[in-house]
Amino acid sequence: MVEYACKKCRYITEEPTICKVCGSREFTKEWHGYVVIIDPEKSEVAKKLGVKYAGKYALIVS
Ligand SMILES: [Zn+2]
User: How do residues 3-41 score in pLDDT, each as one tens digit?
Assistant: First the structure.
């Protein structure tokens, strides 16, 4: 199973068509580490990353 990360917002998905978070069409397989954001409203990590939607986000995208 290959997962892709959005180059713009780092959202991780298995379907690299259009990012449902930011609308970008640029994805990469080259990403490292991830965080799972369950409740962006209450998550300090989400605030730091600028994440507004629940999901899985890559920490490093190249
Ligand atoms: Zn995105």
Answer: 999 999 999 999 999 999 999 999 999 999 999 999 999
- The answer to whether 6 is annotated as binding is yes
Contact 28, 4 (CB under 8 A): yes
Mean predicted confidence (pLDDT) in 37-53? 92
Is 55 labeled as ligand-binding?
A: no
Ligand 1 center to 51 CA (angstroms): 10
Domain that holds residue 33: 4-61
Contacts of 45 (CB under 8 A, 6+ apart): 35, 37, 51
The CATH number of whichever domain residue 10 belongs to comes to 2.20.28.90
Distance 7 CA to ligand 1 centre (A): 7
